[in-house]
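Page 42, continued from yesterday. The earlier attempt failed because a stray header line got pasted into the input along with the sequence. Redoing it now with the clean sequence only.
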Amino acid sequence: MDWDNIRAFLAVARQGQFLGASRSLRVNQATVARRITALEASFQTTLFERSTTGVNLTEAGRQLLAHAERMESEMLQAEADLRQQDVQLAGPVRIGAPDGLTTYFLVPAMRALIERYPGIDIQLVPMPLTVSLARREVDMAITLDEPEAGRVVSRKLTDYTLGIFGAKSYLDRAGRPNSTADLARHRLIGYVDTYAFSSALNYIEDLFDGNSTSFECASAVGQCEAVRSGVGLGVLHHFIAAGMPEVEAVLPERRAHRTYWLVIHEDVRALGRIRAVVDFIAREAQARRHEFLASS
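This time it went through. Structure tokens are written below.
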């Protein structure tokens, strides 16, 4: 059985479309379609139901998926065993992480990593997107909640804190609140509730003491830029605010405490390039622990 055909099958099953599969495999769509056709011909059955919006697995496709994932696990383990002999680490590593952590922590830190391991190709995927460790759409994920099930290995990356901030220009214009009651006189920036993918994002309740928000962004980066632009008062991660001299803490005694978890699928954790990236991210987080956790 041609392993490349199986890889194409797994990509289509996980992406739900041929175009998405071709992008993930970095081949053209015709190649993916040709491999699926060859696979269906070898089994003399239909593996996908095609439609204008994508594809769905048939019953035969669902049966093959379980076997194909076991084959993939064996191939990944073989790669891990063989690469133990390699001095140079190489290959792609895809990381899924919240957009604020990606933009203000991972991106600046990656320079040192790629200089040390030039053969590793880093792919950063902002969360929440419909990405899954189980479907191998990312190699590792940094999450706000520790997984409770699945064939994954998790470790605490770091605790972190959040507080209320405003642009100095805004505070000079609108005044500095002295109590949570004063927050009612300000425009408050928050998260769009319908896009809150984790209960950990409910920090507005912890910090604004029941005062309602009137400007909302469905991303941490959007909220940060709104605060920096002087739109109003918002909740920022302390490690992000540390790099923004134009913003100022408001009611600094009020803070929320959360945790980042680093999660890896069991099948890839032995790969040298995965271990190298995991260890690097963990070291960087530990080195910046004083920024993640604001002092009392």
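Notes: The chain has three domains: 3-83, 91-156+260-289, 159-255.
Reminder to self: strip header lines before submitting.
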